[in-house]
Amino acid sequence: MSGFQPGKNGFQDYRSKIHLDVDVCVIGAGAGGCAAAAALAESGLRVAVLEEGSHWEPRDFRQDTAFAFKNLYQGRGARTLRGNTVIPMPGGRGVGGSTLINSGICFRCPPSVLQTWRDEHGCETITNERFGAYFDRIWETLGVTVNPVAVQRNNNLIFKSGAEALGLDGRFMARSAPGCVGCGICQYGCPTGGKTSADRTFLRQALSSGTVGVYANCRVERCETVGDHVVAVEGHTIDPETHEPVHGIRVRAETFIVSGGPVGSPLFLLRNGLADNTHCGEHLVVHPAVGTLARFAQEIRPWSGVTQGYYVDCWDEGFLLQTYTVSPDQYFLLLQTAPGPETLEILADLSHVASAGVLVHDEDSGGRVRWTPAGPDLSYFMGEGDRRRIIDGLRLCAEVFFAAGATAVAPGRLGHRPVTTMAEIRAALPHDVPASHLPIYASHPMGTCRMGADPETSVVDPHGRVWGWSNLRVADASVFPTSLGVNPQVTTMAMGLLVGHSVAGRV
């Protein structure tokens, strides 16, 4: 395949080595990459978007964990962090990135976080006016809305009733799922098209310009440089069935934007000597999360309804409570009982189980991303403050469930039996529970190519340009200087718009 082809391209279109010559090459088609492509297309630039995963249509998704892990998740769903505990850290794979498999939750970045980025990190491009306009555009582009009660259903409504009984500040979450029908399987890809993922919104806008080509099933591995200029990137097309490399690919461009996410972006920079490990790959932050299950006398049917629809705002205390549901096999992994009759009895009674959890800011924890001869090394150490905030959140989560009428609550603590009264909560969740006894889930990695005004303390400048390179930028959540404390897809898209407009000379 030779010559730039606008529109969607995939493995079935590749018959030989690919040679492209464009204005801008975007590496990665997640939330940041798709938004950057849309911003670039507005200026008529020829843009090639390269993505290791495949194109997907709603009809292609299956309610099948093995299929999803193979096709839609990084590391086939097995990516983990090591440290003072082992933490799963999922990530999306495919055109659309993690927006293919997330719950579509939309929060604007808290103003105090943007203020910190300006005041403490020198990110002068992140003005309230500019990002306010970006957030407004994202809201309109994604069709962000609060889903009606008819599709929220019992898992969200029961938690809402408990929060209201305790007088907590709770509300339904805004989501990029205006057509949600409440099928409860967001993590498998949305089979109805009700969720407006990045590939179906920003990338669709980019493609409509006629100047953007998306090349799925293309893995970028190395680059060619001259002086402070990146001249070309090279890699291979990837067979979507075997994940094996097939044909070569080489792309020349005036500007390159890396949007591989907080793991992929620093690894690409480090492997190619485009940044050193003083800060690149460092400062990994996530939102540690732990779930809680509760049994009710009435039927909940957690598989029915919005996957994550309701939250309690404890942001000032360092955490949020959010409802969630998963597939039965994932509920099985959360149970604190040994395999056998007791576990099977719980699963048989799953229709009476509700689930919610705590999501923590990440204020004193941290990790890093490194490349080794054996492959990526991802590490993360839970801080004492964040561990205590998880415990506080789990206590409150249990209180909400009991206030809603739960007959038993299984707190997110390994090896602990369910509790049956409010009075038992603190004994079940003392502040000295070690991190290794908490089934932590790493949501929303951020920060490994952080933005700043000083090359001594950051990886990219306030326009997303990698220090030391004239035409290389990063546009994804890796550039966040700190954790957000809220779900990050909207802020990631805003960063993509910022970097795209900066390349086009509009910032």
Low-confidence stretches: none
The helix count comes to 12
Helix content: 25-40%
Shape call: globular
Rg measurement, Å = 22 Å
Number of domains: 2
Overall structural class, as computed from helix and strand content, comes to alpha/beta
Strands, total number = 21
| CATH class membership of the largest domain | Alpha Beta
Classified in CATH, the superfamily of the largest domain is FAD/NAD(P)-binding domain
Instruction: Give the end-to-end Cα distance, rounded to a whole number of Å.
Output: 35 Å
Strand content bin:
15-25%
Give a quick summary of the entry:
The chain is of the alpha/beta class. It is built from twelve helices and 21 strands.
How would you describe this protein?
With 507 residues, this protein is α/β, with parallel strands linked by helices. The protein folds into 2 domains: 11-53 and 94-104 and 107-143 and 193-281 and 452-503, FAD/NAD(P)-binding domain; 145-175 and 284-442, Cholesterol Oxidase, domain 2, CATH 3.30.410. Helices cover 26% and strands 24% of the residues. It has 12 helices and 21 strands. The strands form 4 sheets. Strands 1, 2, 3, 9, 10, 11, 12 and 21 form an 8-stranded mixed β-sheet that branches. Strands 7, 13, 14, 15, 16, 19 and 20 form a 7-stranded antiparallel β-sheet that branches. Strands 5-4-18-17 form a 4-stranded mixed β-sheet. Helix 1 packs parallel to helix 12 (489-503) and helix 4 (128-142) crosses helix 12. The protein is globular. It starts with 6 loop residues before the first strand and ends with a helix. The mean pLDDT is 95.
